[in-house]
Amino acid sequence: MRLILLAALLGVAIASRVSYEGYKVLRLIPNEEKLQLLKTFRDRQGFDFWNEPHKHGEKLDIMVSPVEQPSFLNFLEDNKIGFTVLNENVQTLIDAEIKHQATVPKTPREISFNQYYRHSEINIYLEELAVQYPDLVQLESIGLSYENREMVVIKISTGGNGNRPAVLVDGGIHAREWIAPAMALYIIQQLVENNAANSDLTDEVDWYILPVLNPDGYEYSHTSDRMWRKSRSAIPTTTQVCRGVDQNRNYDFHWMENGASDYPCSEIYAGEEAFSEPENQHIRDFAEAHKDQIKLYLTFHSYGEYLLYPWGYTSALPSDWQTLQALAEEVDDAHAAAGGNHFSIGTSTNVLYAAAGGSDDYMKGVVGIDLSFTVELTDTPYGFELPASLIEPTVTRFFEGVRVFGRHVKENF
């Protein structure tokens, strides 16, 4: 009864939620041969690959449904693949999160970092900042999502009439990665509400920040399916309607060359064509309109503690990889000095996995933003279900890395 009441407070019936009762997350460290065997489960019903090792000796986390667990455990035993149980019951964490989100105090038009915010609440907060700080904040609606949610970019600027170098930030392209919009919001709060302490980051540099690049999927992950990853566009197939596209495989730069799927029900489905998703079209158009000003692109994800730069479509290095590597290492040092763990650093393909059609590749390869980075925040046993109690330490530590990015733009452009 109590859980039903809590769900009602969130405006959603508990029956409408996808249940992950009994789902387990297994952590495996396969060699190359075993990894290829495990990959055959990627698009099977009842399996969700939460990450993927780039090489043998690295971890692979797979969520497995109760129905599939007996046969999968037999498969692991038959093939002598060891594992540990990272999460005994995914629903337990989800229930705790529902309870927390329903009961934590909320102050209208303000934010704190002891909870996660819905897309509408984020937009209301941005509107309040524009009212309270008119000399620092401007808002621009860049378009509507597939389900008609307004996508708002906040511009933080102390002047310059758009002639200053700028940083473009986005988060939440993958719906279930809630810490990513939280990180974007923390940057906004620090640059606006705490500008006195951070004026060195805004006195010569403009910031454009889109907290949620996938608002439909993000909202759906709050109301219906906590583990939802993709957009919410309808994709007809011959047998069923599978919803959504992996927006981070949908950019028109080496689209569908590798690390993506043409199967509409896949978690890494790249879409019927490049830029099929309106959300990606909007951020593309915004970046193109400001490409002469934007000098650094930063996109937030979770999880795994990776600090990545292009390319994702090939193992070949960009010509300026040493500049990207050096800057990433400086950011990593600042994060570690603030109490965070060190990141794995390098190109997406060489450090994480090949994934063509990503936003960071597009921003560098097409728009011409040389300094293009993907940040995979946190590496905890909670995976995507990072408890709200860990939001503040996560965002405050990485903000020290954001300082490094901002100073670099200020000093070099």
Write a compact overview of the structure shown.
This protein is an alpha/beta fold and 413 residues long. It has 13 helices and 14 strands.
Please provide a written account of the structure.
- By secondary structure, this protein is an alpha/beta fold.
- It is built from 13 helices and 14 strands.
- It has helices spanning 2-9, 32-39, 69-78, 90-103, 119-132, 179-192, 195-198, 215-223, 278-289, 321-337, 348-352, 359-367, 391-412, and strands at 24-28, 47-49, 60-64, 83-87, 137-144, 150-156, 166-171, 206-210, 234-236, 241-243, 294-302, 306-309, 344-347, 371-377.
- An eight-stranded mixed sheet has the order 5-6-8-7-11-14-12-13, with helices on both faces. A four-stranded antiparallel sheet has the order 2-3-1-4, with helices on one face. The chain has a two-stranded antiparallel ribbon with strand order 9-10.
- β9 and β10 form a beta hairpin.
- The chain is globular and about 65 Å long.
